[in-house]
Design brief:
This protein has 217 residues and is an alpha/beta fold. It contains nine helices and ten strands. The structure holds NADP nicotinamide-adenine-dinucleotide phosphate (NAP). The site of NADP nicotinamide-adenine-dinucleotide phosphate has 24 residues, from α1 and α4.
């Protein structure tokens, strides 16, 4: 599959590397044509399947696109990617809406009655937004076995076929427990989990942990 990655940070490069290893063609996008972090990612990938360009180049390249930009500026980044390049495509939103400006732990820039994923879906109505993977650290996204035992990842979005495509990729990453929370408004809970995630991260002094859901059978 051809996949566009919007973002040159830890998440963009971690997802991009794993997707290339799985045999996908990946274009990493940033605000500039010759972003040094993207160029380094391409070099380290040692694969003709890894390329870089602008946000717009990556979005038009991808049959499926990942949003790996800071939640507070994701709408701007997606605007640069171009609504026409996102039309009809699955847009996997892994971003979190963290505001570090007042110290630790961060607060959320949107919560409770709205979410970034809903804002993205409203702003880009022709994209099929699926929220996923924002609840775990980047390393775990592509290597869930890092955390021992059973643990869980989530998807939500308004388009069932789009969610199926994302579930397939999650399966390629090694995820076994994938819970579909329904429509895109479930992103509120997934994004608000970060309030507790950050407390746990500070308490554990580690990013390598995750949720496991246990229910009465
Ligand atoms: N780190 C994790 O383990 C983790 C886990 C789960 C979710 N997340 C979420 O995943 C997202 C990506 O995180 P990250 O740490 O990989 O990267 P990041 O540092 O949050 O974002 C890097 C990207 O954001 C772009 N960017 C920065 N300011 C911008 C602006 N004003 N307008 C447009 N684009 C801008 C940068 O563009 P340039 O390349 O042009 O500089 C770069 O591509 C975040 O929302 C984060 O909360 C992170």
């Amino acid at each position: 599959m051809r996949i566009g990655i919007l973002g040159t940070g830890t998440v963009g490069s971690t997802l991009g590397t794993k997707l290339v290893q799985l045999g996908h063609e990946v274009k990493m996008g940033s605000r500039s044509t010759n972003n040094e972090k993207a160029a380094e990612w391409v070099r380290n990938s040692h694969s003709s399947k890894a390329t870089q360009g602008t946000f717009s180049d990556a979005a038009s390249f991808g049959e499926l696109v990942f949003n790996c930009t800071p939640g507070a500026v994701s709408l701007e980044a997606l605007e640069m990617a171009g609504p026409q390049n996102l039309r009809g495509k699955v847009l996997v939103d892994v971003a979190n809406v963290l505001d570090f400006s007042k110290g630790m732990p961060p607060t959320l820039t949107v919560a409770n009655t709205d979410s970034l994923a809903e804002q993205i879906q409203r702003t880009f109505p022709d994209a099929k937004v699926v929220k996923s993977l924002n609840t775990v650290a980047a390393e775990i996204m592509v290597d869930p076995q890092m955390v021992p035992g059973d643990h869980d990842v989530f998807v939500c979005g308004n388009d069932a076929e789009a969610k199926n495509q994302v579930k397939k990729i999650l399966g390629e990453f090694g995820w076994k427990n994938i819970t579909d929370l329904g429509d895109i408004s479930s992103a509120r809970g997934l994004e608000m989990w970060l309030a507790l995630w950050w407390r746990l991260r500070m308490y554990f002094q580690s990013r390598i942990f995750n949720l496991h859901l246990q229910r009465q059978s």
